[in-house]
Automatic annotation (TrEMBL):
<dbReference type="InterPro" id="IPR000524">
    <property type="entry name" value="Tscrpt_reg_HTH_GntR"/>
</dbReference>
<keyword id="KW-0238">DNA-binding</keyword>
<keyword id="KW-0805">Transcription regulation</keyword>
<dbReference type="GO" id="GO:0008483">
    <property type="term" value="F:transaminase activity"/>
</dbReference>
<dbReference type="Pfam" id="PF00392">
    <property type="entry name" value="GntR"/>
</dbReference>
<comment type="similarity">
    <text>In the C-terminal section; belongs to the class-I pyridoxal-phosphate-dependent aminotransferase family.</text>
</comment>
<keyword id="KW-0808">Transferase</keyword>
<dbReference type="InterPro" id="IPR051446">
    <property type="entry name" value="HTH_trans_reg/aminotransferase"/>
</dbReference>
<dbReference type="InterPro" id="IPR036388">
    <property type="entry name" value="WH-like_DNA-bd_sf"/>
</dbReference>
<keyword id="KW-0804">Transcription</keyword>
<protein>
    <submittedName>
        <fullName>PLP-dependent aminotransferase family protein</fullName>
    </submittedName>
</protein>
<dbReference type="InterPro" id="IPR015424">
    <property type="entry name" value="PyrdxlP-dep_Trfase"/>
</dbReference>
<feature type="domain" description="HTH gntR-type">
    <location>
        <begin position="1"/>
        <end position="69"/>
    </location>
</feature>
<dbReference type="InterPro" id="IPR036390">
    <property type="entry name" value="WH_DNA-bd_sf"/>
</dbReference>
<dbReference type="Pfam" id="PF00155">
    <property type="entry name" value="Aminotran_1_2"/>
</dbReference>
<dbReference type="InterPro" id="IPR015421">
    <property type="entry name" value="PyrdxlP-dep_Trfase_major"/>
</dbReference>
<keyword id="KW-0032">Aminotransferase</keyword>
Length: 444
């Protein structure tokens, strides 16, 4: 046995004896080299070979982790929810935000308990103005509206743009965020779909739709797409904005995960829009604290009055206390520290998920695991019933989302969406059970 095999054999023995558990970090190369009296280069080579076997996964500058055993060997004692988009409970900064609430009340006690303007707390809007500029969103604080989450931002946009059912059509990606579809349906807005795939959006098809249909607005999630996890290329974003300007189509850009590890070179559509055709929507729920229900909407000047009027009719204004607390949380630097922690956690989860899916997936099953984001998108073989797979997993306390809810009509699609945000890292081994359920439905 050469020295590389010696390291691998030692690690496999540690795993078999339960000394290295699912999701656990392995000893560093220097420590392992000292333990086995070998060169650290040898240890690194062994780790890389085990990574190639999908037994380990690597977190850049964070070491190697054990990818976990097949679910046949793992007992599931509680419900594992791949449906919810709620953040991992261990990442919610309860104490820090409580401190922020107390400080905000002390600093703004004369104003926080009164009605605020529909736009929201001025201090927070000024803070967000500076923050948004760092991400390529340049707007005045008077164009920023604080909302009850991104969902209210979408609703306000649709209400303002479609005051009556005959006022044009809404173009949506297929698949897309299911609550946006539900809102459009409740408002009797006629929707037209355009396919969103791993290759993005077919731009010739987009122009054809703009020519043939009376499209008033295009609801789009360019980055960290829900449900697929895909992100558009920069050249495609530019072209989409150009086409919308040519055909005078307004954009509703849902950038709900803007803070979640977005590459600085990966810009929002808003950045490329120099003609104020974009309503830009941001959320603080998916990466921060869902319960505070805070989001922001950046509106073109031409839509200021209708959006403000709709906001006033809905709830007058968003809670000033939570706005003040978020403002303090951002200014103090605590928000950036929190986001860094969230990004590190989710990147580690995605790497582990990719290792498990790569190791266990059968021929005929394809999957997409993004480098950043929340969603895994599985495409099942045509002969497999997505519904039966979902039902079988539910019977074993594993909840997944079938793709039908993400389409305009009841389309038969061969996809499952799995969200990793609320699943503890140690429970990601349940992905092997998902694969086993799919294999069981495949012809032998």
């Amino acid at each position: 046995m050469n020295k590389t095999e010696l390291v691998k054999s030692y690690l496999m023995n540690e795993i078999e004896q339960g000394k290295i558990r699912n999701g656990e970090r392995l000893p560093g190369c220097r420590e392992m080299a000292k333990r086995l009296s070998v060169n650290k280069i040898t240890v690194n080579k062994a780790y890389k070979e085990m990574e190639d076997m999908h037994l380990l996964y690597c977190v850049p500058r964070g070491g190697y982790y054990y990818a976990g055993a097949d679910m046949k060997e793992v007992a599931i004692s509680k419900s594992i929810d791949f449906q919810t988009v709620t953040p991992d409970p261990t990442l919610i900064p309860y104490r820090a935000f409580t401190h922020a609430m107390n400080r905000a009340i002390e600093e703004h006690k004369k104003t926080l308990f009164n009605y605020e303007t529909p736009l929201g707390l001025k201090d927070l809007r000024e803070t967000l103005k500076g923050r948004f500029e760092q991400n390529g969103v340049y707007a005045s604080s008077s164009q920023i509206l604080i909302t009850h989450g991104a969902q209210q931002g979408i609703y306000l946009s649709l209400k303002a743009l479609f005051p009556s059912p005959s006022d044009g059509k809404l173009l949506v990606e297929t698949p897309t965020y299911h609550l946006a579809l539900d809102m459009a349906k409740s408002l009797n807005i006629d929707c037209v779909g355009i396919s969103r795939s791993a290759h993005g959006i077919h731009l010739d098809e987009l122009e054809c739709i703009f020519k043939k249909e009376h499209i008033k607005a295009f609801y789009i999630i360019p980055r960290h797409h829900n449900p697929t996890g895909y992100s558009l290329l920069e050249k495609d974003k530019k072209r989409i904005v150009e086409l919308c300007y040519r055909y005078q189509v307004l954009l509703i850009e849902d950038d709900y995960l803007a803070d979640l590890g977005t590459d600085k070179r990966n810009l929002p559509l808003y950045y490329y829009d120099t003609n104020q055709l974009t309503i830009y929507i941001r959320s603080f729920s998916k990466t921060f604290i869902p319960g505070i229900r805070l989001g922001a909407l950046v509106m073109p000047n031409t839509l200021y009055e209708p959006i403000i009027n709709q906001k006033y009719l809905l709830d007058i204004s968003t809670s000033s206390i939570t706005q003040g607390a978020l403002d303090f949380f951002i200014k103090s630097g605590m928000y950036d520290q929190h986001i860094q922690k969230v990004n590190t956690c989710y990147k580690r989860k995605l790497l582990k998920a990719k290792a498990i899916l790569t190791r266990t997936s059968p021929a005929g099953l394809s999957f997409h695991v993004p480098k950043q984001g929340l969603f895994l998108w599985l495409t099942l073989p045509a002969e497999v019933s997505v519904q039966r797979v979902a039902e079988k997993l539910a019977a074993n306390n594993i909840r997944v989302s079938s793709s039908s809810q993400f389409y305009i009509a009841d389309q038969v699609e061969q996809n499952l969406r799995l969200c990793i945000s609320g699943v503890p890292e140690k429970d990601l081994a349940a992905l092997s059970a998902v694969i086993e359920a799919i294999k069981d439905e495949m012809p032998q």
